[in-house]
Each structure stands twice: as C-alpha cells, then as structure tokens.
Amino acid sequence: MARGGCSWPQRLRKGKMLAVGVLAGLSVLSLLTYGYLSWDSLGRGPAEAPAALGEERGVGALSSQPHIVFILADDQGFRDVGYHGSEIRTPTLDKLAAEGVKLENYYVQPMCTPSRSQFITGKYQIHTGLQHSIIRPTQPNCLPLDNVTLPQKLKEVGYSTHMVGKWHLGFYRKECMPTQRGFDTFFGSLLGSGDYYTHFKCDSPGICGYDLYENDNAAWDHDNGIYSTQMYTQKVQQILASHDPRKPIFLYIAYQAVHSPLQAPGKYFEHYRSINNINRRRYAAMLACLDEAINNVTLALKKYGYYDNSIIIYSSDNGGQPMAGGSNWPLRGSKGTYWEGGIRAVGFVHSPLLKNKGSVCKELVHITDWFPTLITLAEGQIDEDIQLDGYDIWETISEGRRSPRVDILHNIDPIYTKAKNGSWAAGYGIWNTAIQSAIRVNHWKLLTGNPGYSDWVPPQAFSNVGPNRWHNERVSWSAGKTVWLFNITADPYERVDLSSKYPDVVKQLLRRLSQFNKTAVPVRYPPKDPRSNPKLNGGVWGPWFKEDEKKKKSDKSKGANKQKKNKKKANRKKGQSLHCRSRLAGG
C-alpha cells in the first residue's frame, strides 16, 4: 500500500480561494502558432486580460482538487536538458524546473512499456507480468485487465481524463485500448514508434500500418502531414479550450519525441548547424521543438484558467540512446540497461501549489510513486486490496521532507539472456546470478546477470560526423563476473565496483531480491500473432483478437447442435406417436 500522509488538499481549502474565468467561445486557433511567447504577457493588455475572460464566462471558486498534467518525454537522456549542462537549449524546461522542484534522485525503467505500466498502475513489472522487454505490435499482449489504472481512480472522484500521445501498453483486444482503461478521450499512437509525419510504422518487412487514433478509431481525418509533437500540442490546446477549468482535469501527454526515427521540422535545426554528428543534430532539433511545445501547453494552461490550480509533472520514460543522439553523461550506460544511464531520469514538478518552490529534491523517488501521490492529491481513495509498490511522496517534493521510499526494485527479468557464468554459487546460494536483475536499497545498488551496454559516452563522442566509440570509456571486467555492487550516493557514475569488498552487503541485497521474486507473477510475453498484420485490418494497427466472436460462434455452434438434438428427439417422439397411431388405427 502507498505510505505517507498528505494534508495538501486540506491546507489548500484553508488558503485563499482564487477566482478563475474562461471565455467559452474562445478560438483555439490563436494558440496554434509555435513561437515562444512571454508567460508574463498572458493576462496583460485588452486581448488577454483574465478579468475580461471572467466577465464573459462567469467566475467560479477554485476547486480543492488540482488539475494534473503529466508530461512524459520519450528517450530523453539524463544530460539532455539545459540545467544538466547540455548544449541543447531547453529554456522552457529550465524555467519550469527552476521555479518548481527538480527531482535529482528520480528513477524510471529502462524502456518504454515498463515505465508506462508502472506509472499508470503504481506497481513494479514483476507484479503485472510485464517484466520482460516491451509489448511488441504483433503480440497478443497488453497491460493486464485486472489492474486498476490511475485515470480510472481519478474518474471515480470526478476528474475528466484525457490522453494525448504514445500509449504502448498493448491493443490486441478492444478492452486494452486507452478509452477502456480510464481515459475519456484518446488521441495518439498505440505503438512504440513510427513516422512523425505520416504516422506509419513497419514492425518488419511487409508488416506495416497506420498508427494514429482518435478514441477507438483510426484518425484518418488528422493525417495532414503535421509533425506529431506539434499535432499533439494542438490537441492539448483544444482540450483545455473546451473544458471548464472549475472542474478537475487529468491530462496525460506522452510525446513521441525524442524517440527515433530522428525527424524534426527544418526551422529547429537553426541553432544546431555546428553539431557535426547528424544524429545528435537531429536529436537537438527534436528536443528544441519539444521544449517549445511544452511552453505552448503552459501558455494554454494560463490562458484558459487552469494554471493557478495545476500540478505539472515532467519526466522522461528512460535514459537516452547514444546511437540515436541521446546523452546520459556523466552517467554510465544507456536506454535498455540497468546502469544509471538507463534508469535515472530528467524529472521535475512545477506548480503554484508547491510549498518549497525553486528547490532541489535529492530524496529517492520512483515512477510508481505518482499513482498514490496523485490519487491522494485528487482526494481519491486507494483500495486496501491494491498492493502498490509506489509511495505518496507529495510532502517529500512540496515540503522537503524525507522520502518514505528506501528501496527500488529496478527489475527481475527471468527470461532475458542469461549470463553465461552466472550461478547459485556466485550468489552465495541465495540467488542465481545468471538472471538479469537490479535493486537499490538506501545508498546501495546491486546488479546481477547481464546488465547490458556499459560504456560511459562523453560529449566528445558526438563530435564527429558518424558514431564514434573511440571517445567512450570502457571497462573490461574480469571473465565470469555476474555481480556488481555500487554506493550510488558516493559513486553515482558507477565507476567503483564494491562487490568483493562488501560481501555481506551483497548477501543482504540478494536476499531482498529473493523476497521480491517470491511475489512475482508469471511473465507475459506471448509469441507474435499473424492476425495482427494491419493488412487484415484495413491497413491500420489496431485490435485484432476476436475472442468474443469465437465465443459467439462456439455458443452458436453449441446452440445449433442442441437444436438438432432436440429436433431429432422431437422427430423420434413424433415418429413413435405416429407409429402408435397407425398401429391403433390398423388394430
């Protein structure tokens, strides 16, 4: 269960009630230009004055339930934000983070599906069956339907729930779609990646389809060649323009950027011509466009009367991919690994409702924590039978209190490629070190099995036209190594392995892994289903599993058989009675 109390809603009620008004018929088109406007200019002058807006629509009291805006970037590297020293300019992110709370001990999962599933359920992968890899487009798999989701819980307490962007939690049956998992509306893609302009995705040669949806149908009407980052932002603006800010809203904006393919509108390359590495240059342009989009979302929140009662959370879903332009320097490793570069993320909270604005939170925070934190802020209830792995960390973020979290199970993946030299003996008889796993307890982090690509990739690696690994720092571990131990607080870059120096600590963490593993559910990773081919679904990626139809056919078949049997019986009886009658007549 989530832990830690949160008295924020009560404190807010006692505070001064603010008045907000919005012009009902205000055209959304005024917000669809993509330039940086001054936030301070909003509400000033005859065209934008909130008072004028309030006069036309009427004024309502500020709700005690905050508007929640969760923005999830895709594959943004730890270094790829201005305030982490990047050469890529991110003025919006820098400003929002500086005025809010920067999360500098914040963890996610190393890939798309795992982070998204943990955010929306508050549970580790081992408790949903999604502990291996991602959900592939052709797999009959999705976030298990018996898991209650964050939007479902928010709807229970009156929230309007909307998702814009990348789903990537499965869609093989209609029940798996976002609109069936708690969202009132959905506009975006179902898969993990695709073309930013055409919205087409090929999973393998000949297995290609269209992937842009509005609610439960392909959004062909929106296929206008608009770059997805801008298109999603326009949709967010339309949602905010049409909703009543006196009623709470949950907006989950899962941008496609900066995931490959590396595409961006030409104007965003302007400031990055000097970057010789083509992947880094394209990545920089994509991130610049994303930063501008978030500026426009913030402008819309202010323009339409949401901002003063809003909580904006920004997070990357995993570490960056250096071969696709991302940088996690000075952290080790990359996306898809359990080194810090794969799981330590850019994250911050921006809100007028924060107590300690302009601060840095170095307490341990994990992506599962948003589930109980946001439900508590929304004045919702967390059912006692929901076994959460997340904690309520609002007071940690807002007031600077200690985090209730002392450990993180990064993952246990029993079907990932086994480390050749792993064994129970190497794990002191407690754990088979051939299995890929990683855990954090207080300052200590333990990895076992095959942890993945482990280079440090400094900025100089991007100085050439093509990928260059000569600049990378590499460590050749002694043959047979399958256990690593680091003090992350003292050594956040994972340069000094302490497993041989502190065997007792290793044993303690292995025991903790073993305890977690006893609670794991079976892995859900089914083989591909040929019926998933978009060619069989009008050229669109979408639900293909017709379980209900099969059942209907089966029921129909059973019913038909039953009717035949009954008919035979009836005929038999009819024949018998006729035979009797004929005998009687003849007698």
Automatic annotation (TrEMBL):
Coiled coil: none annotated. Pfam families: Sulfatase (PF00884). Its cofactor is Ca(2+). One of its GO terms (molecular function) is metal ion binding. GO terms for cellular component: actin cytoskeleton. It comes from Coturnix japonica. Signal peptide: none annotated. Residues 521-587 are annotated as: Disordered. This is Arylsulfatase family member J. The chain crosses the membrane at residues 17-37. Residues 66-378 form the Sulfatase N-terminal domain. The lineage of its organism: Eukaryota, Metazoa, Chordata, Craniata, Vertebrata. Residues 559-587 have a biased composition (Basic residues). Residues 545-558 have a biased composition (Basic and acidic residues). The keyword Transmembrane helix applies. Keywords: Calcium, Glycoprotein, Hydrolase, Membrane, Metal-binding, Transmembrane, Transmembrane helix. Belongs to the sulfatase family. SUPFAM superfamilies: Alkaline phosphatase-like.
